[in-house]
């Protein structure tokens, strides 16, 4: 009887061992399945992370490109503005230059000349400018009053009144027009109209006064241009203002030279 009980106990223990083994094996299989699932999820997450990194890098490059494009567009807009400003400045300088020439011609009345010699070799004694037009210059002298086309004037007068030289528009040509074809030239038979010493002194004084009035205008223009030049930042503007300053300084120097000649004329006839 006791032997049977022992056998039953052993069988029960064996069954319990088999059941425990089966249960343990099942747990291991489930754990393996969970591990595989977790591994797959981790792999998916890593793949997603890599894709996100690539997207972020591409987006960063796109942002950098857009930023660079924006900077380039701003630079291009600045350059276009500088070009427009430069063209406007050139146009204004051209107008100022043309106006200066017109003023020089209109203010030339009464200018006393130092016995100029014409291209044909004739010397004009006691010469004085009466009027300067685009195609005709009227000069009084010891032998009368005559009108000259630009090609009949001495070189210094051509340069002074900018005849035959570009002034921002079509080049002026020193040609004789039909309207001035009957302009008389200087000959020994011209009617003498002698100018008195008082007239010459008065003309020289008037010319000196006109020159003195022009000087403050040029000096003010020089001061204004110097201020604008100091404020210029771009190379193109600096280049423009440098040329502008050189031009104004040359005009001032020429004007002072003319004033000195006019002062000498005044002293000569006093």
Strand content: 5-15%
What order do the SSEs take from the amino end to the carboxyl end, as H and E? HEEEHHH
Q: How many DSSP helices?
A: 4
**By helix and strand content, what is the structural category?**
mainly alpha
Q: Count every beta strand, where a strand is a DSSP E run of 2 or more residues.
A: 3
Mean pLDDT: 76
Terminal CA distance: 172 Å
Number of domains: 3
Helix-residue proportion: 55-70%
Gyration radius, in Å: 50 Å
Strand order of the largest sheet: 1-2-3
Biggest sheet overview: 3 strands, antiparallel
Shape: rod-shaped
Unreliable sequence segments: 167-195
Keywords: Cell projection, Cilium, Coiled coil, Flagellum, Membrane, Transmembrane, Transmembrane helix
Coiled coil: 194-265
Transmembrane segments: 6-23
Organism: Prosthecobacter dejongeii
Quick gist of this model?
With 270 residues, the protein is mainly alpha-helical. It has helices at residues 2-106, 155-160, 197-231, 235-269, and strands at 128-132, 137-141, 144-148. It has three domains: 1-87; 99-195, no CATH class; 196-270.
Overview of this structure, please?
Residues 194-265 form a coiled coil. Keywords: Cell projection, Cilium, Coiled coil, Flagellum, Membrane, Transmembrane, Transmembrane helix. With 270 residues, the chain is mainly α. It folds into three domains: 1-87; 99-195, no CATH class; 196-270. It contains four helices and three strands. It has helices spanning 2-106, 155-160, 197-231, 235-269, and strands at residues 128-132, 137-141, 144-148. It has a three-stranded antiparallel β-sheet, with no helix packed on it. A hairpin with a 4-residue loop joins β1 and β2 (137-141). α1 (2-106) packs parallel to α4 and α3 (197-231) packs antiparallel against α4. The N and C termini lie far apart (172 Å).
